[in-house]
Amino acid sequence: MIRTVLIDDEQNNIDNLQYLLHRHCPEVQVLATARNAIDGKTSILQYQPDLVFLDIQMPEKNGFELLQSLPGYRFEVIFVTAFDQYGIQAVKFAAIDYLLKPINTEELKTAVNKVAEKNRQQKQNGQIEYLLQLLQHQQQKEEHRIALPTTKETRFVRLQDITRCESVNNYTTFHFNNGEKLMVSKPIYEYEELLGDYGFIRCHQSHLVNKKYVKSWIREEGSYLSLEDGSQVPVSRQKKDSIKQELERLK
């Protein structure tokens, strides 16, 4: 069983989530519910849950402030919010799951399944700590890191160390400047949205490239980008104009 606490300032949202969990996620046991951050913190400390469903926007203290007040994080978090712009980029960078209201049943089941697969109740949750760091500190872009979850661990890597990303179906492989590779089970379009403001360009349906590692653009025998590590990344016909504009900014 996955032992959980539900925290939301609106009772109808709690009731709806309880109903969906009971019907679609029988492996989840609801230990307690709370309608504010103070009662939520009390429930977390008392029951020591495996999972917390946490509303972001609540009166007095929001969900992030609740997390900041806790001594540790031996649980997983699934954020629930009606505001997709409110802190969601930081949540994505930390690779923490979130659900938008009204809750989609399939997305709920997927998020719960991820928690069940992790099975890390006895470990400190570094993703929450990193999320709070992102929210508290306005780091320089070159210092930013991104959490990349694999089946064995969650790696926190500097964006400037990523040379390119390559996708196959719903998997994305990250290539690093030291030659290392790391595969995560997320499609590349999710990372295009996250990394677009950090110098990454989508040059092909299956490729995302860090502009700082582009050495040249070869237009003979098929268009491709030549990177500093010697790799060659194709440029699709549809992307040529946008790639030209992006690379001209490097001059």
Description:
The chain is α/β, with parallel strands linked by helices and 251 residues long. It has two domains: 2-135, Response regulator (Rossmann fold); 146-248, OB fold (Dihydrolipoamide Acetyltransferase, E2P), CATH 2.40.50. It is built from eight helices and 15 strands. It has helices at 11-24, 37-47, 63-68, 88-93, 105-118, 126-136, 188-195, 240-248, and strands spanning 2-7, 28-34, 51-55, 76-81, 97-100, 145-149, 154-158, 162-168, 171-176, 181-184, 200-204, 207-210, 214-218, 224-227, 232-234.
Question: How big a fraction of the residues is strand?
Answer: 25-35%
Mean pLDDT: 90
Distance between the termini: 57 Å
Largest sheet: 5 strands, parallel
Which keywords apply here?
elongated; five-stranded antiparallel beta sheet; OB fold (Dihydrolipoamide Acetyltransferase, E2P); 251 residues; 30% strand; 8 helices; Rossmann fold; 15 strands; five-stranded parallel beta sheet; alpha/beta
Write the layout of secondary structure elements.
Layout: E1 2-7, H1 11-24, E2 28-34, H2 37-47, E3 51-55, H3 63-68, E4 76-81, H4 88-93, E5 97-100, H5 105-118, H6 126-136, E6 145-149, E7 154-158, E8 162-168, E9 171-176, E10 181-184, H7 188-195, E11 200-204, E12 207-210, E13 214-218, E14 224-227, E15 232-234, H8 240-248
Structure at a glance:
With 251 residues, the protein is of the alpha/beta class.
